[in-house]
Amino acid sequence: MRGPSIDVAVVGGGPGGSAAATLLAQQGWRVVVLERERFPRPHVGESLLPASLPILRDLGVLEAVEAAGFVRKLGATMVWGSDPDPWSWYFRETNRSYPHSYQVERDRFDHLLLENAAATGVEVRQGERVSSVEFLDGGVRLQAESGPVDARFVVDASGQAGLLARQLRLRQNDAFFQNLAVYAYFDGAAHLPAPNDGNIFIESYGQGWVWKIPLSAGRTSVGAVVDHATGGAGIADLGADAFLRAQIDHAPRTAALLSAARMTDGPHVARDWSYTATDLVGPSHVLIGDAACFVDPLFSSGVHLALSSAVLGSAYVTTALRRPQMTGPAGQEYGARYLQQYRHFRELARLFYASNHHADSYFWEARRITGGSDSPRHAFVRAVAGQPPQGYERSVLQRGDAPPAFANAVSAVEAVRAEREQRWARLLPDGATLGTAPILSTVPRLAPGATLERRPVLEAGEFVWADVLAGPDRPEGTPLSPLVARLLRSLDRDRPVRELLTALAAEADADVDADADVDVATLVPLALAALRVLYVDGAVLIDA
Q1: Based on the domain organization, do 186 and 211 belong to the same domain?
Q2: Per-residue model confidence (pLDDT) at position 382
Q3: How many C-beta atoms lie closer than 10 Å to residue 436's C-beta?
Q4: What's the rounded Cα separation, in Å, for the pair 280 and 295?
Q5: 14 and 163, same domain (yes or no)
């Protein structure tokens, strides 16, 4: 029997769906996007993060985004925490490659991504609602508005509609973030003084917080995030328009910027903002973006999580179609990697909510971190481990009123890291001759709980087997180069660093192909640099 002519059907043409479709088409698959609406269409969530720009580059759409005239965003300005005055943090502090992002009108931005998918060879069907998915032997059948669509695989990028999460009863709401948002668009608003005029402005007040996002052509996105019960009652009593205006009045700086502005679109209401699906993959399906999980919008993470999950999810699809024997492990890796990013933003949002100064209000008191199964130290490690520096965690400590146990735990973690940095400097002083450096006589070993494992890792658009370092503080595992993996495997023999380096050099000399990009002359400094990072990070212990 002949199989489906379509390899992958993508439900939803938003950023996640368009990106996944483009990446799959780049791998040579026959892809169709089924989008229920017709683009361009309005959508909330206009503020992008710099981490999304490399993905847009790989999709081949970054130049079009840069040329579209979107407002350039250098960071964020906030009224939050213990300081009653506005304060700012900037992307350049932690991201030199991409020190800015953009405030985008989602109708134009999403349309650019969908058109880019079509230009890559994706078949795009707009106005095509999918009502259900039937799982068949060797594929799936989607019940679309114009008739059944058969494919080998389905990518659910249906957003908060959550086609498969609802059909398979996978969705779980997040008990911590029980919020509601009311938002609208204004013309003629004033902006913050330069250089913050392109920043997102977030102002907290007793009942929640408001955002103000400057868009092109004089348009501004404004929304209020409040407790879902309080917001629901207020909207029922006042109506959405009066309720939103009342929240803006509680945020005096935002109100001043909007004093001469007029509402041109809205207000709109979004409920039940935070949730996850209990399972993100199956043998012939994967959930990405908001269809898989959604977290509080405080850090403008929605589009980035959609794009990032598209990268990981498309790699899972390619792996499952190309090497079916890897479907299970690759699916587990997709779930672990995507949820790692989701939890990063969730933990940072929890820390921000817990550190705000309106402790006398129900909204903020209910969102303080008062317990949980994790120790404060593990809460901090989970919030920042495995992620590039975002700047958020430092803002929590410097500007917020964080719970004492958390603040003490962070100080303890950083003190241990600083102590290890100082000890390493004594073991291998700058300018010292390597032959006499004290590091050579020390004996390194893996820290308790740290293990070397073979797991799937992302490479060239699919998952392949590789060595990873796993442990209590890195359950998702850290991929390792062949050199670092060989270095860690050799630690089990209780040999001093001098012997380890000699053995590694001999192996490289005998089998250069094992590390084609590393010759013997550069191996020693590379191995020592890796050992330093592992030691400071706590994955390796060093005995004198």
Answers
A1: yes
A2: 46
A3: 7
A4: 16
A5: yes
Distance CA 113, CA 117 (A): 6
What's the rounded Cα separation, in Å, for the pair 159 and 173? 15
Instruction: Using pLDDT thresholds of 50, 70 and 90, give the confidence band for residue 79.
Output: confident
Q: Which of 271, 291, 317 is the last residue of a domain?
A: 271
How would residue 371 be classed by pLDDT, with cut points 50, 70 and 90? very low
Question: Quick one: tokens of 28?
Answer: 């040579």
φ/ψ of residue 428, rounded to 5: -140, 75
Alpha-carbon distance of 36 to 6, in angstroms, equals 19
If asked whether residues 465 and 516 sit together in one domain, one would say yes
A 10 A CB-CB count for 379 gives 21
Residue 267, preceding bond cis, omega within 30 degrees?
yes
**Structural domains of the chain, count:** 4
Residue 176, φ and ψ in degrees, nearest 5: -75, -40
Q: Phi/psi of residue 460, each to 5°?
A: 55, 40
388: preceding bond cis by omega (within 30 degrees):
no
Q: What are phi and psi of 286, to 5 degrees?
A: -150, 140
Average pLDDT over residues 345-370: 63
Long-range contacts (CB closer than 8 Å, 24 or more residues apart) made by 371-376: 375/409, 376/403, 376/405, 376/406, 376/408, 376/409, 376/410
What residues contact residue 498 under an 8 Å CB cut-off, 6+ apart? 440, 441
Which pLDDT score is estimated for 407?
A: 64
HSE (side-chain half, CA atoms, 13 Å) at 346: 20
> Helix, strand or coil for residue 149?
strand
The DSSP secondary-structure symbol of 436 reads G
Position 95 in a domain: no
Virtual CA dihedral for 404, 410, 416, 419, nearest 10 degrees?
A: -100
pLDDT tier at 260, thresholds 50, 70, 90: very high
Range of the domain at 292: 6-68+104-173+276-325
Q: Are residues 381 and 244 in the same domain?
A: no
The Cα-based distances of 19 to 312, 330, 338 in angstroms read 11, 19, 15
The closest of 350, 356, 399 to 205, measured between CA atoms, is: 356
CATH number at residue 480: 3.30.390
- pLDDT for 358 equals 54
Show the DSSP H helices in 188-239 as ranges. Answer: 228-238
